[in-house]
Amino acid sequence: MKSNNLYSQVLSNNIKKPLIKSEGPEFNLIECRGDLFVDASQNSSLAHCVSADFRMGKGIASVFKEKFQGVEELLSQKKGVGEVAFLRRNDRYIFYIITKEKYFQKPTRRNFENSLYYLKELCEELGVKVLSAPKIGTGLDKLPPEFVRKTILKVFDGCDLNMTIFYL
């Protein structure tokens, strides 16, 4: 796997530590402790994982549901597993990465990866350059953190995007 300008881990004091630099489109991944809704920059679009039924009753998904509303708007987009629905709020996009059919299910690795490819295409199409997310796939969905990190790096390699993953 080829790596571009990559930030892998951020120290607990939030000092960014670049690991690799290269020319061309750059994907930067930063992981840092913080509150997504407080610490993400105002120009950052947001993303998180959901089920196709958009129940969003637990975890950070319930906070997205309360904060951004729009469940009917999301359902009207008729997106399924492996796709991404989105809302436009305050000059930024809120992406709903659909990794499973029903809220009580767990995503497969393939569905998670396919959803990220869809997200990458959407970000490129919509001109999104800054994206923030919680630790996607690893909370209630229980995907292994190392798999999630490697998949993000693989999918977004060469994409002109700065992604920050927040964890508490």
Gyration radius over CA? 15 Å
Count of DSSP H/I helices: 5
Shape: globular
Question: What fraction strand?
Answer: 25-35%
CATH fold node name: Leucine Aminopeptidase, subunit E, domain 1
Q: CATH-wise, what's the superfamily?
A: Leucine Aminopeptidase, subunit E, domain 1
Query: Which architecture per CATH?
Result: 3-Layer(aba) Sandwich
Overall average pLDDT: 89
**Order of helical and strand elements:** EEEHEHHEEHEHE
| Low-pLDDT runs | 1-22
The helix fraction, in percent, is 25-40%
In the residues, how many domains can be counted?
1
CATH class: Alpha Beta
**How are the strands of the largest sheet arranged?**
3-8-7-4-6-5
Distance N terminus to C terminus?
A: 29 Å
The count of β-strands is: 8
Structural classification: alpha/beta
| Sheet with the most strands, sense and barrel status | 6 strands, mixed
EC number: 3.1.3.84
Domain Macro: 16-168
Catalytic activity: ADP-alpha-D-ribose 1''-phosphate + H2O = ADP-D-ribose + phosphate
Family: Belongs to the POA1 family.
Could you name the key traits of this structure?
5 helices, 30% helix, two-stranded antiparallel sheet, alpha/beta, disordered N terminus, single chain, Leucine Aminopeptidase, subunit E, domain 1, Macro_dom-like, 168 residues, Macro_dom, EC 3.1.3.84
